[in-house]
Each structure stands twice: as structure tokens, then as C-alpha cells.
């Protein structure tokens, strides 16, 4: 360890203490930011000290839940795990997580493994710096195009990064997402697939919000013999013969509702199995698994039950809607913000299938772009009320609740933090 | 009521060129017809669709795309559908082309590397990407319509996200004058293009739900061309659209004057 690394860690540690003492926040990002300024290669130092290595979880949707599931399984198995708090999934968030776990002298010798959710654009940067033990790629959907760009561009960057991994690394891919499955091409790393085999869950036809329905190799239209949601399903190219790889992991029941959580869970199981965790340990963990921050998270607020489903892009939003409908939601609060973490462009709400909502549901709308949302719901033929002030919107929504009913909140990212702040007094943890 | 009227709207490449909530434009046209008792059909026109399905349509919409999908669509468009679309537009069939579709109906798109991508030359315009160091033109945007004449002065809002800079040729008129944001190229202060009854624009957001005047103008024009008589559309309450527009104007610090 260099002297600069030492200085960086020490200053990072101090900044976490300062941050918490003055209640400035949890210190999820800026201790790392400061440390990176002093020692740009500090991540390399930390990762080299882990006994086993680093697991990176990437994807448009599900990375928080998947990484939390894997972390919980590993902890049940007795490992000491470093993990980044939700949202802090850029380089500075990863470094902050290390600093948080390190001693004042920068030692992390007590830790076996790090499990990090990682931002789409950060994955290639980190893989270029260090060699992860495992990389999980969950899915790619259109999301905040003004910030992330096109899914094809992200997939290309990922593939370039993954091809550099040696055979000692494992890449875990979703066989049901054509673009993710295609990442397996020309990899030296070991490849493991997860996917769902469940014909009883097939949909009749593709939804509007799909991104990868053409062959990645020959560009002809893919044939889906089964569709789960968006472009995830049992796909094949009738022209060149490219087809969905048979998944190695497919027959586990998810501990959480929502079809998307079946994928999150399968991915976590696949990674845990690679790390030779026994089935009983996985099953034991799931019995007590509570959802990640803002993802089906449950709260009591003024005697009312509130459940938060972070919903920030068309594919994820459609899945949230299906899940709350299946949970017999009677009252729903949708909050659309256009702050930087949400994306400035709210056009994507027109790709969400609000037309599938039951007509009798109580719908309350809020957020900085409440009227864009109202316009969308108006064109879907649904009744709703608008309330720009979020606290008032929550209170109004609660008034609709009858005995034992739950308020289902579907917020974008910054709106989710605001709701948590109103309900719990704290944005993050 | 106007129950006797029927419209068929061609939605070009809904599975390939529909990236930024473009479906909103179709939903808007469809609902505004239905609310007025106009019998409306949406006809998806994609790679496998025959030209005969397209030529009978009364209104055309084509949206934005990601690069890979756009290449697939462009190949089919140039070789198959574009000549039909060009003929329809020359015959005053109203049309709306947004973002990538707007670029594709021009003469060419010049990427910062590689060869020019030939366009359909339906509109007299061309687009150049100024290089990977040039910033993308991204953000909320507002403009004042110049055309169509009946809407001249109307303020429209949207969101733009494009790397290419578009310049209009002499034969083409700009759609609007930018009052906040970038527009065609971030230089000359104009946005979009207007030719006969066809509109090209960088505004997604999408354009029509928040700017229902344009939606109604497209519907009215389509009916007038089809039925060869003056049409007056029934009034619809657009107060929600007005509130959503006001939010963008506030963001852009524009004082709404009309």
C-alpha cells in the first residue's frame, strides 16, 4: 500500500465520521470521491486485499435486489461481505463501501468478498481496473436515454470489458434476454446462464416496451415461443439459428412477488452456487429475506401500511403495475420526478401500459412532472387526482385506505428518496 | 357528431422506430379521433408489411430509433416504403416525422466516422454529426410555430436528444422558431421543417399530447384531404396539456405570451 493510499483512506474515514456526526448523510459517495482524487487506483489496492475477490451485479433493473440477496446468502454462510448501499453504484460508491469497512490504516483483512451493484456505465471502468471474481449481467432495457444512451451502446461497452476477463472469472448471464445472452460470445471467462422455464407464465404477445427483438448476429426478427415480459423469453432466430442458451439455473421459487424477482433470485443463486454455497443455506436465507431499499419495501406511516415499488423505466414500471395489480391494490400513488437521478426526459411514461390498470383503482399522482403523468393517465382513460405537494399526496392517498389495505407507491428514484424521507425522516438508511 | 368519418393512421416501424415514448403521438391521435366519434384505425407498418397496406392510409407517423434498429428500418424504408410515402406527401397526406425519422426523410446523414447514410430525400434537408467531441443537444425545448399558417405563433414544447445537426434546403420551410433549447442545429434558431401537410421535428416528449393543436391540425388536414371539404373538429378540454406545457416553459424560464 502506498503512502497516498493511506492518506486517502484516512481522509475518507474521517469524512464518513464527519458526515454522520453532522447528519449530512450516510457517506455513501463522497468519502470515496475524496479518496479517488488522492489515489485514483485505490480500488485496485482494496480488491487485492479481499480473500476471495469481487462480485459485480449489473443490469437496468434488479441489481439492488440481486446484490442484497447474494450478500444475505453469503453472510448466512458465514462470509464477511463488503456491500455498497443502494444508489451508490458508481466508482465513488464502491470505494466508499471499502473505506467504510476498512480500519484506519486501510486494512480490510477480515473481509472475504465484496458484492457490489454497479451502474451500467461504471461496469466497464471497473472491469478495466480490476479482475472481478464474478460478473452478473441481469438485463438491458431502455432507461434514461438522456443519461445512459442506447442499450446497444451499453451492451457493446460491456462486451468489450468482459472479453478481457481471464478464465478464472465467471460471467453469469440471463439467457432470456437476447442481448445479455449474446454477451457470452468469445469470452475467455467461464459462462453460466440463468433463465426461467415456466410455460404457464407465457404472455400472449410482446408488450410495446421491448428493446431486443431482433437477432444480434444477423439482424433478422427473433421468434419468441414464450414471452415472460418485455423482450425476455424463449427466443430463437429462424434465420441464422442463434437461440436462447439453456439456463443452468432455472428452477428456484423467488421469495418476493413480481416476475422480475424470479430473475433476480436465480442470478443470486447462480452466483452463490459458483461460490459453493449449499442449497440449505440459500433456502434458510430466503425465509427471512426482507426487500431492498425502496424495492417492495414496507412501512407503517400514521397507522397505515405503505409499500414502495421503485419504478423508473418502462419495463420496470410495467412489472410494478402487474405486481401491484396481482396484490389486489385498491389505491396507488404514482410520483414522477425529472431530477438528475430520474432522468430529465419523462417521455418514457408513454411506453408504460397504464391501459392495463383496473378502472376502479384509486389513483393519486404527484411529483415535479405530475401534469405529464396526468396527461398520460387521461389518455389511458383512467380517473385520478393530482397533488403536486408530495406530503399532501401521501396523506390524501392514505385517506382512501380501508381497514387493512396497503397504499402502493410507484415513484421514480428521487421521488422514492423523498417518500422515504417523509415516512421515516431519513432518505437513505 | 362526426360518426361518418373514418381515418386510417399508418404507424411506421412501431417495433423498430419507437424509442422515446413515440407511442404517445399515436395514442394522442387515436384518442382525439375517438373522443370525437371519428372511426380511427392504427395500421402498424413494419418490415414485413406490403406497400398496398400503406398507400391507403390518411395520416403517417414515424418516430425515433436506436442506431441498430434504425439501420434495419432505413434499409427497408429506402427500398420499399419511401417512394410510397413520398407520393403520399406530395398528395398532401399529413405526416409527422420525429427525431431519427426526421433525419431519415432528408438527403443524407453524415456520421462523424464512416460513410454518409443515404436518406429518402422526401424533405430537402441534410444532417451532419459534428464529431465525437461535439455535445449532444439534449434537454427541454420550446419553440413558436411558423407553420402551418393557422397555428402560426403557437408555442410548442418538448424534449430533444440528438447528436446530428440538421440544415434545411431552400425548398423547405422551418416549422418553428426556437425560444428555449437547441432545435435543428443549435445555430440558426429554427426547429423542424414543414412541407405541404408534412411536419418533421426533433421534439419527442412526445410532441402531440402536450401540443394538441398540432394533433388536431393533423387530424383535420387528414379528414379534409380525404373528404375534400372543410372540417371543424369538436372542442376538447386540453387544460392538462396546458399545465404540462407550463411546467416546461417555467423550466426554460420562458414567459408565455399567448
Overall description:
With 429 residues, chain A is α/β, with parallel strands linked by helices. Chain A has 2 domains: 3-287, Mur-like, catalytic domain (UDP-N-acetylmuramoyl-L-alanine:D-glutamate ligase); 295-424, Protein-Tyrosine Phosphatase, Chain A. Chain A contains 15 helices and 14 strands. Chain A has helices at 3-21, 30-38, 42-49, 63-76, 91-101, 122-129, 145-148, 151-163, 178-181, 259-274, 279-287, 314-326, 370-379, 390-399, 413-424, and strands at residues 53-58, 81-83, 113-117, 134-137, 170-174, 190-194, 223-229, 232-236, 295-301, 304-309, 331-335, 362-366, 385-386, 406-411. Chain A has a 6-stranded parallel β-sheet with strand order 2-3-1-4-5-6, with helices on both faces. In chain A, strands 9-10-14-11-12-13 form a 6-stranded mixed β-sheet, with helices on both faces. A two-stranded antiparallel ribbon of chain A has the order 7-8. In chain A, helix 5 links the parallel strand 2 and strand 3. The longest helix of chain A is centred in the first third of the chain and has 19 residues, at 3-21. Chain A is globular. Chain B is an alpha/beta fold and 258 residues long. Chain B starts with 5 loop residues before the first strand and ends in a 7-residue tail after the last helix. Chain B has one domain (6-251): 3-Layer(aba) Sandwich (Rossmann fold), CATH 3.40.50. In chain B, helix 3 (67-90) links the parallel strand 3 and strand 4 (95-98). The mean pLDDT of chain B is 94. Chain B is globular, with a radius of gyration of 17 Å. The relative contact order of chain B is 0.16. Chain B has a 9-stranded mixed β-sheet, sandwiched between helices. A 4-stranded mixed β-sheet of chain B has the order 6-5-7-10, with no helix packed on it. Classes of the chains: A alpha/beta (429), B alpha/beta (258). Chain B: Keywords: Cell shape, Cell wall biogenesis/degradation, Glutamine amidotransferase, Hydrolase, Ligase, Peptidoglycan synthesis. Chain B: One of its GO terms (molecular function) is glutaminase activity.
Amino acid at each position: 500500500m502506498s503512502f497516498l493510499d493511506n492518506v486517502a483512506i484516512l481522509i475518507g474515514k474521517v469524512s464518513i465520521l464527519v458526515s454522520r456526526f453532522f447528519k449530512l448523510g450516510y457517506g455513501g459517495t463522497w468519502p470515496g470521491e475524496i479518496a479517488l482524487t488522492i489515489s485514483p487506483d485505490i480500488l485496485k489496492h482494496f480488491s487485492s486485499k479481499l480473500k476471495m475477490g469481487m462480485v459485480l451485479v449489473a443490469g437496468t433493473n434488479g441489481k439492488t435486489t440481486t446484490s442484497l440477496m447474494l450478500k444475505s446468502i453469503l453472510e448466512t454462510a458465514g462470509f464477511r461481505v463488503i456491500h455498497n448501499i443502494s444508489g451508490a453504484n458508481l466508482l465513488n460508491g464502491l470505494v466508499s463501501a471499502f473505506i467504510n469497512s476498512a480500519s484506519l490504516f486501510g486494512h480490510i483483512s477480515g473481509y472475504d468478498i465484496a458484492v457490489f451493484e454497479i451502474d451500467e456505465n461504471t461496469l466497464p471502468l471497473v472491469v478495466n481496473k480490476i479482475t472481478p471474481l464474478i460478473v452478473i449481467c441481469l438485463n438491458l432495457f431502455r432507461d434514461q436515454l438522456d443519461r445512459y444512451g442506447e442499450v446497444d451502446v451499453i451492451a457493446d461497452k460491456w462486451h468489450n470489458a468482459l472479453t478481457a476477463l481471464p478464465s478464472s472469472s465467471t460471467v453469469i448471464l440471463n439467457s432470456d434476454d437476447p442481448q445479455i445472452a449474446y454477451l457470452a460470445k468469445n469470452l475467455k471467462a467461464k459462462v453460466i446462464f440463468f433463465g426461467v422455464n415456466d410455460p404457464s407464465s407465457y404472455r400472449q404477445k410482446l408488450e410495446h416496451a421491448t428493446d431486443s427483438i431482433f437477432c444480434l448476429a444477423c439482424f433478422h426478427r427473433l421468434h419468441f415461443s414464450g414471452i415472460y415480459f418485455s423482450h425476455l423469453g424463449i427466443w430463437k432466430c429462424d434465420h441464422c439459428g442463434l437461440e436462447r442458451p439453456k439456463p443452468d439455473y432455472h428452477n428456484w421459487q423467488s421469495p418476493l412477488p413480481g416476475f422480475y424477482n424470479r430473475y433476480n433470485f436465480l442470478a443470486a443463486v447462480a452466483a452463490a452456487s459458483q461460490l459453493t454455497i449449499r442449497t440449505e443455506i440459500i433456502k434458510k436465507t430466503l425465509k427471512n429475506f426482507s426487500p431492498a431499499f425502496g424495492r417492495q419495501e414496507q412501512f407503517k406511516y400514521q397507522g397505515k401500511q405503505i409499500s414502495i415499488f421503485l419504478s423508473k423505466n418502462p419495463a420496470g414500471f410495467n412489472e410494478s403495475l402487474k405486481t401491484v395489480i396481482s396484490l389486489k391494490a385498491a389505491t396507488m400513488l404514482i410520483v414522477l420526478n425529472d431530477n438528475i437521478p430520474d432522468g430529465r426526459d419523462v417521455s418514457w411514461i408513454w411506453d408504460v401500459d397504464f391501459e392495463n390498470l383496473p378502472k376502479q383503482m384509486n389513483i393519486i399522482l404527484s411529483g415535479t412532472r405530475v401534469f405529464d403523468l396526468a396527461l398520460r393517465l387521461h389518455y389511458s382513460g383512467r380517473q385520478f387526482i393530482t397533488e403536486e405537494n408530495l406530503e399532501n399526496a401521501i396523506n390524501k392517498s392514505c385517506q382512501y385506505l380501508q381497514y387493512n389495505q396497503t397504499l402502493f407507491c410507484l415513484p421514480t428514484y428521487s421521488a422514492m428518496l423523498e417518500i422515504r424521507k417523509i415516512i421515516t425522516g431519513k432518505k437513505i438508511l | 357528431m362526426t360518426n361518418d368519418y373514418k381515418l386510417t393512421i399508418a404507424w411506421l416501424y412501431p417495433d423498430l422506430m419507437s424509442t422515446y415514448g413515440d407511442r404517445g403521438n399515436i395514442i394522442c391521435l387515436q384518442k382525439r379521433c375517438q373522443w370525437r366519434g371519428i372511426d380511427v384505425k392504427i395500421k402498424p407498418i413494419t418490415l414485413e408489411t406490403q406497400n398496398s397496406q400503406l398507400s391507403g392510409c390518411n395520416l403517417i407517423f414515424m418516430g425515433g430509433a436506436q442506431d441498430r434498429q434504425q439501420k434495419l428500418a432505413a434499409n427497408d424504408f429506402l427500398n420499399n416504403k419511401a417512394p410510397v410515402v413520398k407520393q403520399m406527401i406530395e398528395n398532401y397526406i399529413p405526416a409527422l416525422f420525429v427525431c431519427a425519422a426526421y433525419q431519415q426523410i432528408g438527403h443524407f446523414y453524415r456520421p462523424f466516422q464512416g460513410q454518409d447514410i443515404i436518406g429518402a430525400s422526401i424533405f430537402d434537408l441534410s444532417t451532419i454529426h459534428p464529431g465525437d467531441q461535439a455535445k449532444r443537444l439534449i434537454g427541454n425545448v420550446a419553440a413558436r410555430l411558423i407553420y402551418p399558417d393557422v397555428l402560426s405563433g403557437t408555442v410548442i414544447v418538448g424534449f430533444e436528444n440528438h447528436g446530428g445537426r440538421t440544415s434545411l434546403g431552400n425548398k423547405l420551410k422551418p416549422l418553428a422558431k426556437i425560444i428555449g433549447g437547441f432545435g435543428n442545429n443549435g445555430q440558426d434558431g429554427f426547429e423542424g421543417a414543414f412541407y405541404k401537410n408534412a411536419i418533421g421535428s426533433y421534439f419527442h416528449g412526445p410532441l402531440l399530447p402536450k401540443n394538441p393543436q398540432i394533433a388536431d391540425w393533423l387530424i383535420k388536414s387528414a379528414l379534409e384531404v380525404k373528404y375534400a371539404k372543410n372540417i371543424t373538429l369538436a372542442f376538447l378540454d386540453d387544460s392538462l396539456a396546458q399545465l404540462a406545457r407550463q411546467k416546461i416553459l417555467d423550466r426554460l424560464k420562458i414567459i408565455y405570451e399567448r
